[in-house]
Amino acid sequence: MSFTRLSATTTKAGVRAFSTARAQNYKVAILGAAGGIGQPCSLLMSQDPRVTHLSLFDVVNTPGVAADVSHNNFACKVTGHTGDAELEEALTGCDVVVIPAGVPRKPGMTRDDLFNTNAGIVKNLATGCAKYCPDAALCIISNPVNSTVPIASEVFKKHGVYNPRKIFGVTTLDVVRANKFVGDAKGTDPQKTHVPVIGGHAGITILPILSQVTPKAEFGDAERDALTTRIQNAGTEVVEAKAGTGSATLSMAFAGARFASNVLKGLDGEYNVECSYVQSDVTSAEYFSTPVVLGPRGMECNLGLPEMNDYEKKGLEALLPELKESIKKGVEFANKE
Ligand code: NAD
Ligand code: LMR
Hints:
This protein is an alpha/beta fold.
C-alpha cells in the first residue's frame, strides 16, 4: 500500500515549507534486537520514514527495548517479540529482516570460531523467515557471514522459496571502514570517498579495491599494503580494543541500518548501489560480494568485479580457496538433518 505524505520542513530562513514525499508501508524486523548491534540498529531503523512497523525479536529483553525505542517521536509502530513462540508474529508481513543474532568474537578468535554457535541460530531464524515471510529481503549480519549467507540460502531452497535477489550478506561495514581510513589518509571527506570492497567478510577474503577509489587517489606500495591490512583487520582492531566485551556494535549498527534503508529505498523504487555478499557467478565462488544494484525486486543486477590492478588480482586469487571452504561448510551444515 502506498500513499503520499505531506511533510513540513523549516528552512534556514525559518520559513515553514511543505513538500510531498512518497512513502510506503514497510514492516522491518530485527532478529537479535536486544543485542549490542540490535539495539542501536533498532533505534536507527525507527527513524527511517519508510518503516511503519518495526518488529523487534530476541530470545530475551525485547519488551524493554521495544518500549524504549517506541517512545521516540517517529511515526512507526514498534513491537517486541520474545522467543520461538513469538517468531511467527514478529515475521509475518515483513518486507525486510535484519539479522544480527548470535555471539560476537573475543580476542584471539576468528569469525569462523563462531560457526558452532551461530550457524544453528541463523538456520533456525532463516527457517522462520522461509515459513512466515518468504518474500522478505534478508540482511544477514551474524558471523561468519561467509557461511551464514549460504546457510540461509540453503534453508530457503529446502522450503522451495529461494530468491537469490533477496538474501544479502551485510558487508557494508567493510566499505564504511575503507571510506573512513582512505578519506582520513588522503584528506578527502569520508562520506564522499568511495572504495569498492569485494570478496567476503573475514580476514583476507575482505578485498578493498583501492585502485578504484573515488575521488581518484594514488597509493605507494607501503601505504597500499598498510591500508589493505587495516581494512581487513579492522574488526579485530575493535575486538582487541573491547578486550573481551564484544566486537563492533555501534559502527555495525550504523552500517547495517544504512544497508537495510538502502534495500528499502530500492523496494520503494529508488535504485541505488551497495556492495553485498550475494549468490554470484562473477568468480568461481558461489557467493561473493561486489557492488549490486538494489531496486524493487531486491538485487536488480550484479555490477560484477571492478577493474583491478595486479596486486588486487593476486588478492582475489588468494582469497578464493578460503571463501569457498567457508561456503562449503555452510552448505553442508544447512543440509545436515
Ligand atoms: P550480542 O551478543 O551483543 O547480541 C546478540 C543478540 O542475539 C543477543 O541479544 C542475543 O540474545 C540474541 N540472540 C541469540 N540467539 C538468538 C536467537 N536464536 N534468536 C534471536 N536472537 C538471538 O552480539 P553483537 O555484538 O550484537 O553481534 C551479533 C553478531 O553480529 C555476531 O555474530 C557478530 O560477530 C556479528 N557482527 C557482524 C558484523 C558484520 O560486519 N557483518 C559486524 C559486527 C558484528
Ligand atoms: C567486524 O568486522 O567488526 C565484525 O565482523 C565483527 C568481528 O568479529 O570482527
